[in-house]
Amino acid sequence: MSGPTTETPSAIQICRIMRPDDANVAGNVHGGTILKMIEEAGAIISTRHCNSQNGERCVAALARVERTDFLSPMCIGEVAHVSAEITYTSKHSVEVQVHVMSENILTGTKKLTNKATLWYVPLSLKDVDKVLEVPPVVYSRQEQEEEGRKRYEAQKLERMETK
């Protein structure tokens, strides 16, 4: 995943070994466990970014799950590597792309198991009904910003059509 650059990291990774209580009787990790890790990674990177400039402190709140793909099962004993990256920012929202890889720590084999696109908005810690402005990101390529803007406008249009 190559994306925009900022003074704060635009990508993070969290890792966790999957245990029996994370899975069903067949040994496959519950989708809810994976969704929770996806959202946690998105919340961390978004909140860090939204607090990267001086100003009112905030927490990034999940506003929209654009898509979530379950590509392959993850099993007990594998390590989940959840990578989250900020791929676009608008005045009041942050787009985060998340990829989940499973690693068999006995063999070193890795596979992509999940992908997701999430949108967050920064809410003031003083007044949780107040949405704050998002610090801009600097893109390494102009096309990244243009592609992000197209995705933003498309999801905005979809929201208007479903109201």
TrEMBL record:
List the biased-composition ranges (Basic and acidic residues): 147-163
Record-level GO BP terms: acyl-CoA metabolic process; fatty acid catabolic process
Which intervals of the chain are annotated as region Disordered?
Answer: 143-163
Q: Which residues form the HotDog ACOT-type domain?
A: 8-126
Q: Which UniProt keywords apply?
A: Hydrolase, Serine esterase
Pfam families with a match to the protein in the record: 4HBT
Indicate whether Hydrolase appears among the record's keywords. yes
Q: Which residues form a coiled coil?
A: none
- Which superkingdom? Eukaryota
Q: Which InterPro entries match?
A: Cytosol_ACT, HOTDOG_ACOT, HotDog_dom_sf, Thioestr_dom
GO MF entry, a single one: long-chain fatty acyl-CoA hydrolase activity
Query: GO CC terms for this protein?
Result: cytosol
Output this protein's name.
Acyl-CoA thioesterase 7
The organism is Rhinolophus ferrumequinum (Greater horseshoe bat)
